[in-house]
Design a protein that fits this description.
The complex is a heterodimer of chains A (about 400) and B (about 350). Chain A has 15 helices and 14 strands. Chain A has about 400 residues and is of the alpha/beta class. Chain A has two domains: about 180 residues, Glycogen Phosphorylase B (Rossmann fold), CATH 3.40.50.2000; about 160 residues, Rossmann fold. In chain A, the strands form two sheets. Chain A has an eight-stranded mixed beta sheet with strand order 3-4-2-1-5-6-7-8, sandwiched between helices. Chain A has a six-stranded parallel beta sheet with strand order 11-10-9-12-13-14, sandwiched between helices. In chain A, helix 1 packs across helix 14, helix 7 crosses helix 12 and helix 10 packs across helix 13. Chain B has about 350 residues and is mainly α. Chain B has twelve helices and two strands. The longest helix of chain B is centred in the last third of the chain and has 62 residues. In chain B, about 40% of the residues are buried. The model of chain B has no long low-confidence stretch (mean pLDDT about 85). The chains are: A alpha/beta (about 400), B mainly alpha (about 350).
C-alpha cells in the first residue's frame, strides 16, 4: 500500500463527467485512487452552474474556477490551478499542456512532483490558429522537459517524444468499460429502422482527418451493408457538403450528434461492423469503446490504430480497399474479430487497469530523479571514446 | 512595351526558369525582367537627358551593370560556375573602388569614424560583393526582390533630395518606373516573367553602389548619420538574412553556399501565407525596421538605432525559425500518420 498523497488533478472541465476523455478518466481515477489518496479536482465554473456544483465528488474535493477549461482561457485556467495546488498538493497530475509554461518555475522553486499527460499532439490540429499552434508546440516542450513523468496515450506518440526530446514517455491509454451493450427493442427499431438489419457504424467529428469522405465514397458503391454515421455535420463546410451529397442515399444513414450515452451505446452495440477512420490524435476513446463492445473493427491503417488494435483488426488505406473488405465479410469471421477486439479491450482498456497504471506512476514519482533517456546508456559516452572502441554507431541508436 | 516583346523571344532562346525541387513555381517562366528593367531605364535616361558630364558620372556604375547583366543572362541560360561569378563580382567591386566609390568612414557607428586605407578597400569589396549576392538570394518569390528594390529606391530618392542630388533622384525614379512595369508582369498569372539572376544581381549592384555614393556625397554635412542610416535600412534585410542563413549552414556543418529552403521568404511561406502576401510582409518588415531605426536614431544615435533594428530582425526570424521547427515535426508526424499496408 502506498503512502497517502495529496493529488491535484488539473486541466479537465471537471466532474461529474459530461464531456471528453480526460473528464471520464478523472472520474475513474477518483473512484480507484481516491480510496488511498486525497484528491482535489479543478473544475470549470463556466460549465457547472451554481446549482450543479458540489464541494466533493466521491470523496474528492472540487474547486471551481470562473474560466473555460478549453480554448485560450485554458492557459489561465491551468495556470491558476497549478499555482493554487502548490499550496497543498504533493503531486500535480496535469492533463494537457496549456499551463506548462509554469513548470520550469515549479521545478526550480518547489519540490512538488509533476506528472503530465500531453494528450495526443494538440499543436498539430487544424482547429488552432498559428499563434495557438506555436504556443502549444512550445508548451509541449516545457511539459516534457520539466515534468517528472510525462504520459502519452499511444506508442506512436511515444516514438515522437523520443525522437523530439530523447526521453521516454509512459503510455497510458483510456478505459472503455463505462460503455454498455444495450439490446435493441421494438421502440428503438421503430425510431431507427436500420436497427432491424445488419449495418456498419461510425461515430466521429466530421473532419477530413477522420476520412469521412473516403468512407462515404466506399459505402456509396457497395450494397452489401448500409452505413450509419453519427457526427457534427453542420459544424464545418466539409460536413455540410458531405451531408448534402449523401443525405437520402439508400445505403447511407446520416445522423446528427447523439449526446445520450445510452442511446449511442444501443446504436453501436447492435452494429455488425465498426468503421474507424481516424488518422490522427493517438489512441481514440471511440475506438477502444467499440472494441470493448466486442465490435469487429475495420480501421484506417495508421500506426495509432494498428497499435490500439494490436494489429489484429482489418485495415484499409483507400476506399477501394474498404470496399474490398466489406464485400468479403462473412459472419463467422466477423464474430471472431469482435471476440478478439473484446479480449484486447478487457486486458488493456478497463478503467481499473488504467487507474493501476496511474497508481504505479504515483509510487514512482517519489523516487524518480530525472527523465529516462530514450537512447541506450552507452550513447551518453563521448563520440571520440566510442569511435576509439569501434562503437561509434551506438552514439545514434535512435536513428536506426 | 518592352516586356511583351522580350517574353516572345525568351522561349525560343531558352531564357526560361524551369521548375525544380527548390523552386516554388511549376511551369517554365521567361527570365527577361532584368533585361527589361535595364533597357527601360537606359532608354528613358538616354532619350530624356542630354549626354553631358552629369550623365557621365554614372558611366562606372553603367559599365558594372552591363557586365553583371551579361553575366546574369549567361548564368540564367547556361548556369555558370559559382567561382567564376564570384571572381567577376570581386573584379567589379575592385573597379568601383578604383573609381573612387568607397567606404571612407563608419560615421560614428560603434564609435568608429575614419578607417585606414586597407580597411576602406577591404570593407568596400566585401560590402559590394556581399550586397549583390544577398540581393540575388532574396529573389525567391514573386514580387520580393522588386518590392524591396522599389522601397529601397524610394528611400534613396528621398536621401538624394536631402543631399541636393536632384539628377540622381531622377535616375532612382526611373528605376522605380521600370520596377513597377516589371511587377505588373511578375505578379500576373498568365503573362508572368522573372527578373532572373541578371535582374537581381544588377539591382543589388545599382543599390549598393548608389548607397555608397549617397553616403560619400553626404560626407561632411550635418545629415551624414541620417543618410548612412537610410542606406543601411535599405540593405538591412537582404544582408542580415544572408548572414543568418550562412551562420546556420556553417553551424550545421554545411557549406555557407549550400542551397536550401531557409531564407526569410521560405520561412514565411511555411506559415501557410501566399507568395504575394509573403513579399508584402517582407517589404513591410523592411519598412518597419527602417522606421524603428529612424525614430530611435532621433533619440539615441546611430549605434543604438542599428542595435534596435537588429533586435527586431532577430525576434522576427527567431519566431519564424520556431515555426519552421514546428513544421519539421509536423512532417515527422504526418509520415507516422500515413497508413501502413502490411498486406
Amino acid at each position: 500500500m502506498s503512502i497517502i498523497k495529496k493529488i491535484a488533478i488539473i486541466g479537465t472541465v471537471g466532474v461529474p463527467a459530461n464531456y471528453g476523455g480526460f473528464e471520464t478518466l478523472t472520474e475513474h481515477l477518483i473512484e480507484d485512487l481516491g480510496r488511498h489518496h486525497e484528491i482535489t479536482v479543478y473544475c470549470s465554473g463556466k460549465k457547472y452552474v451554481n446549482a450543479e456544483r458540489q464541494t466533493t465528488f466521491l470523496g474528492a474535493k472540487l474547486i471551481y474556477l470562473p474560466l473555460e477549461a478549453n480554448g485560450v482561457q485554458s492557459i489561465i485556467y491551468d495556470s491558476i490551478s497549478i499555482l493554487h495546488a502548490l499550496f497543498y498538493a504533493d503531486v500535480l497530475l496535469i492533463l494537457g499542456v496549456a499551463g506548462a509554461w509554469l513548470l520550469p518555475f515549479v521545478r526550480l522553486f518547489t519540490n512538488k512532483k509533476i506528472i503530465i499527460s500531453i494528450d495526443g499532439i494538440e499543436w498539430k490540429r487544424d482547429k488552432w490558429n498559428l499563434l495557438a499552434k506555436w504556443y502549444l508546440f512550445w508548451a509541449e516542450s516545457m511539459a516534457v522537459k520539466y515534468s517528472h513523468i510525462d504520459i502519452s496515450d499511444n506508442e506512436a506518440i511515444q516514438d515522437y517524444t523520443a525522437a523530439r526530446y530523447g526521453t521516454l514517455s509512459r503510455i497510458i491509454e483510456y478505459g472503455a468499460d463505462h460503455t454498455m451493450r444495450i439490446p435493441r427493442n421494438k421502440d428503438a427499431i421503430e425510431k431507427y429502422s436500420f436497427l432491424a438489419k445488419p449495418y456498419a457504424f461510425k461515430v466521429c467529428r466530421i473532419e477530413p482527418e477522420n476520412n469521412v469522405h473516403l468512407i462515404l465514397e466506399a459505402f456509396d458503391k457497395v450494397e452489401k451493408l448500409p452505413l450509419v454515421l453519427v457526427g457534427n455535420w453542420d459544424k464545418s463546410e466539409y460536413g455540410k457538403k458531405l451531408k448534402s451529397k449523401y443525405l437520402g442515399h439508400p445505403n447511407i444513414e446520416i445522423l446528427d450528434p447523439i449526446y445520450d450515452q445510452k442511446q449511442l451505446d444501443m446504436l453501436r452495440s447492435n452494429a455488425t461492423l465498426y468503421i474507424h477512420g481516424h488518422s490522427a490524435g493517438g489512441t481514440n476513446p471511440s475506438l477502444v469503446e467499440a472494441m470493448f463492445l466486442g465490435l469487429p473493427i475495420l480501421a484506417y491503417g495508421v500506426s495509432y490504430n494498428r497499435v490500439t488494435t494490436e494489429n489484429k483488426a482489418l485495415y484499409f488505406d483507400s476506399s477501394q480497399e474498404l470496399i474490398y473488405h466489406i464485400e468479403n465479410l462473412y459472419t463467422v469471421k466477423l464474430r471472431q474479430l469482435g471476440q478478439i477486439m473484446h479480449e484486447i479491450a478487457l486486458r488493456r482498456y478497463t478503467w481499473a487497469h488504467i487507474a493501476k497504471k496511474y497508481q504505479l506512476l504515483l509510487d514512482e514519482v517519489n523516487v524518480v530523479q530525472g527523465k529516462s533517456s530514450a537512447n541506450a546508456k552507452i550513447s551518453s559516452l563521448p563520440y571520440e571514446e566510442l569511435l576509439g572502441k569501434g562503437l561509434a554507431h551506438l552514439k545514434t541508436t535512435n536513428t536506426f | 512595351m518592352l516586356i511583351p516583346a522580350l517574353r516572345k523571344i525568351a522561349l525560343p532562346i531558352g531564357l526560361v526558369d524551369k521548375p525544380n525541387h527548390r523552386k516554388v513555381h511549376a511551369n517554365s517562366v521567361p527570365l527577361v525582367g532584368g533585361i527589361g528593367i535595364f533597357l527601360a531605364t537606359t532608354l528613358t535616361l538616354t532619350l530624356a537627358v542630354p549626354v553631358d558630364e552629369k550623365v557621365l558620372v554614372y558611366k562606372n556604375t553603367f559599365i558594372g551593370v552591363v557586365i553583371l547583366l551579361i553575366m546574369g543572362i549567361l548564368d540564367d541560360r547556361l548556369d555558370l560556375r559559382a567561382s567564376l561569378k564570384f571572381a567577376i563580382q570581386i573584379l567589379l567591386a575592385h573597379f568601383i573602388y578604383s573609381q573612387g566609390v568607397k567606404i571612407e568612414s563608419l560615421n560614428g557607428l560603434f564609435g568608429i569614424y575614419s578607417l585606414s586605407a586597407w580597411l576602406q578597400y577591404f570593407l568596400t569589396i566585401v560590402i559590394i560583393t556581399g550586397v549583390v549576392n544577398a540581393f540575388n538570394l532574396m529573389d525567391g518569390i514573386d514580387g520580393l526582390a522588386a518590392g524591396l528594390a522599389l522601397m529601397g529606391f524610394g528611400i534613396f530618392t528621398f536621401l538624394a533630395f536631402v543631399n541636393g542630388q536632384f539628377f540622381t533622384a531622377v535616375v532612382f525614379l526611373t528605376f522605380i518606373g521600370a520596377l513597377l512595369a516589371f511587377l505588373r508582369y511578375n505578379l500576373s498569372q498568365n503573362k508572368k516573367i522573372f527578373m532572373g539572376d541578371a535582374g537581381s544581381l544588377m539591382l543589388g549592384f545599382v543599390m549598393v553602389v548608389s548607397g555608397l555614393e549617397l553616403i560619400q556625397k553626404a560626407q561632411g554635412t550635418n545629415h551624414i548619420s541620417a543618410v548612412t542610416l537610410g542606406v543601411i535600412s535599405v540593405l538591412f534585410v537582404p544582408v542580415f538574412d544572408a548572414f543568418r542563413v550562412f551562420r546556420r549552414r556553417i553551424k550545421a556543418g554545411k557549406s555557407p553556399f549550400h542551397a536550401d529552403k531557409t531564407h526569410l521568404h521560405h520561412l514565411i511561406l511555411m506559415t501557410g501565407l501566399k507568395h504575394k502576401i509573403a513579399s508584402v510582409l517582407i517589404v513591410s518588415l523592411m519598412t518597419f525596421i527602417s522606421i524603428i531605426g529612424y525614430l530611435s536614431f532621433q533619440f539615441a544615435g546611430l549605434t543604438l538605432s542599428i542595435t534596435l533594428m537588429l533586435l527586431v530582425f532577430f525576434i522576427v526570424t527567431t519566431l519564424l525559425q520556431f515555426n519552421e521547427k514546428l513544421n519539421h515535426w509536423k512532417h515527422f508526424i504526418q509520415e507516422m500518420e500515413k497508413p501502413i499496408n502490411l498486406n
